Amino acid sequence: MYKIVVVEDERGERELICRIINELYKDFSVVADFGNGLDALEYITKNDIDVLLTDIKMPQMSGLDLINQIHQNNEKIKCIILSGYNEFEYARKAITYGVMNYLVKPIDVDELTDNFSRIKSILEYENEINQTDIPEISEEFFLDLCMDAIDDTCELYRRYSALNLPFSISDAYGFILKINLNDYAYKHKYTEEQFARSLTNIQKKFFGDYVYYFYSRESDFYFFVLNCDTSSLENIQKQLQSAFDYDIVLSFVSHFTDLENVDCDIFTLNDKLELLISHKLLNRKSLCRKLSQSIMRNISQSGKINFQSINSEILSVLGLDNIDSLLSKDINIRNFSDDNIIKYVEEYIENNFNSEISRDDIAHHVYMNPSYFSRFFKKKKNIGFYEYLLGYRVSKALELMKTNMSIEKISENTGFGNSKNFRRTFKLKTSYTPQEYRNEIINKSKEI
Q: Is the pTM for the entire model greater than 0.85?
């Protein structure tokens, strides 16, 4: 239950607003209401709340002054301004204070409902990211930013604040860098995620701390580099080639002067559909709406549908009978329920655990974006994907330990790649080395 404070100097209006919220919005509860900003400020500084709904014109302290005071100590509180003054200057100033919206009285219940739905989505997102590492948060943020999926300015600012950067979103200049590893697809030894981490770490030596991986396709890896110029490009290319022994080509996708104006046209229809599915599964309605619009632009030319750009296999997997289904107001992804996704993942692991499996491989298999797949899987299974995969492989290894198969062969047949990696993981999961465990089994069978 999210806690709301209502501030309105007209008592009758205040009581009506409180009653509407408590009766219509089951996820929100009015915990206090006040007739002036000073009393509200005193309460909020001593109590945790999630949302502030305040009039703009009040005695003693205005709504804008109240919000300004609150945000000096707690930027996480979501604020909505109510006013009888339909003036642009108030709205513009409210936005600079991080206000979610500016609503003109009398209250339109439908508009208030839209605002609460959006606030709920943002609060749920913030609760999720409290349990997630910054690399994953940044990967998702920059991906959504580049795919034009972020719904509005307020959400952009909220998501950016989760990165805890020491500069504002309007001051975050930089560039998007593409690193192409020509031979990667043929001789890589590591997963895409491992490569991305290594590439990120090397870039940070040259560009500074604000380098963020957000996307890869085949041999191309894409990075956001913030608050840095491009003078180190030649040196970093030599360093990368030396570290990986690959033919590496670096190129700029685009430059930007702030994050509200990023241009990055690198995504396919397939990419957008995967991201749409991911946000639909995570119940991010506003992002789904924005992505649906982007998809429609992707598949149409001069108002006509470009049927050649629609992949029939994707339509089949989505459970769509034809293009008309995609054009409907609410895209119906029938096959992609939470339980079905998990079932497909479990089946894929069961059939492929003895070969190399990466997060990206399995995410694409179920038509999800890899970054969001990690979050979705952990949310549904209460365990990370790689942790689950390792546990499954160890369970299969335990079965094979009862046979005459060699330790080296078991490590190979359970997808660990090499016996050293297998022994380390096996001991971590069971507290035995493989040989110790096998001896234990043999001893017990002799006793029987």
A: no
